[in-house]
Amino acid sequence: MTKGFYPCLWLLHGKAVKGFDNDEVISEDPAALAASYVEAGADGLILFDRSKKDADHDAAIDLIRRICEENEVPVIGAGNIRRMEDVKKLIYAGCELAALNLSRESNCILAREVSERFGKDRIAGCYKTTESSSIQWDKLTPWISARILLDAENEAQTQEEAGAENVSGNEPAIPLPVISLVSDPAARAIAGQLSGDQIEGVSGEGVNILMAEGKDAVSRARVFCEDAGISMEQKAEAAFAWGDFKKGPDGLLPVVVQEEGTDQVLMVAYMNEEAYRLTVETGRMTYYSRSRKSLWIKGETSGHFQYVRSLYGDCDMDTLLARVVQIGAACHTGSHSCFFNEVQQTRAAKMTARRGQASDVLSEDYATIIERKKNPREGSYTNYLFDKGLDKMLKKLGEENTEIIIAAKNPGENEIIYEIADYLYHLEVVMAEKGVDWEDITRELIRRQKKG
Fold first, then answer.
1. How far apart are the first and last CA of the chain?
2. What whole-number distance in Å separates Cα of residue 132 and Cα of residue 171?
3. CA nearest 390: which of 426, 427, 430?
4. CA trace torsion 281, 282, 288, 293 (10° rounding)
5. Torsion of CA 328, 332, 338, 343, to 10 degrees
6. Which residues contact 367 (CB under 8 A, 6 or more apart)?
């Protein structure tokens, strides 16, 4: 089992606070704090929503979504989980795991329901040492895949004592890995926690303090643990060294950047040896600017980072293909791709594109609806819907949904095709009214596909 560092953020009123029962604000911008932890070398994040009101809870979910989107590490979401819908919100926000509070008896029942719906590998359980003996672990283990121990049970023990096979003396037979909180940031204390056979990671204030000390401190702690015989999570290594590539006369390697989810070519840039090394080590695309003659991390100023999914050398090893997850726009102009100046496209190519790309047709239809909204046209049904407002739009959407159900019960396929087309049109009108476009929907589907 490889083990890692999982700093923890407690979210309250849009801020990061110090703990479960401590409202002291440690950051006004939790997303920036999370990014700093990841930059320092976090292997994952644990986010606890401490909000009390529904509006605050919804805002916390939006914040969790942002943190998940901006950081390419596993995120565990916890807090305010009482029903399946709460688990769904966390998973759809991008969390790798939703962690139920096992002190709630109802959540022990909920574990089975959400495990059957989302899969055991997406569900974890939170508990305290004093609660462990009262939890029916034999009934829970089929429905959760990991545990988060909410108190630093073993931190006062020596490294040898913490290496016992069980996490606490009364539960030697629970076959579930544990992430345990630790308050001491010292490498020896962290190694002592991690040496337990069932411990797969450490979190809590001690890990947060370590992350705040920066990348060098985290690296030293990781090395200390490795020297103690603990197998730690490691950054990816490249199959080819920089010397294996053929560079241009300027010593640079051209990089073609392609979006993983859409296969769209986003940009072309260049790397030197340092940019290649940092890209491999950090998982963020880093380039060498020929104009500025310096390194630049894509998104460092704009927030539009590119996260590496794969790197491939071509047949001559003189060009690199990077498939990435693109956050925001790739181009400095605000365009998603740098390639938007059409030089030539034959009529046949346009017809083929229209036939082959359903997304293009939907995007064009949506653009027409937006145009009608901005510039109303007399007699336009679209403008009639906008004039009547959201309630009318939703009424029509519901009617079209019913028509699809009826058509599906009838023989033949033409009727249901027509009804689905009508439904999609009315759906696009609602999307336009709410400011949601197909790119938003596509990104969400791609994110869920990656999580699935």
1. 23
2. 8
3. 430
4. -100
5. 140
6. none
Q: How many Cβ atoms are within 10 Å of 410's Cβ, its own excluded?
A: 10
The DSSP call for residue 43 is: S
Q: Look at residues 378, 411, 373, 407 and name the one whose alpha carbon lies nearest to residue 389.
A: 373
Residue of 91, 139, 151 whose CA lies nearest to 111 = 139
pTM here is 0.67
Quote the Cα angle for 197-35-70, to 5°. Answer: 105
DSSP 3-state of 268: strand
Integer Cα distance of 257 and 269 in angstroms: 8
Residue 397 token pair: 């959407």
Distance CA 67, CA 63 (A): 6
Taking only the tens place, the pLDDT of each residue in 238-295 is: 899 999 999 999 999 999 999 987 789 999 999 999 999 999 988 889 999 999 999 9
Which tens digits make up the pLDDT trace of 208-245?
Answer: 999 999 988 998 999 999 999 999 986 567 899 999 99
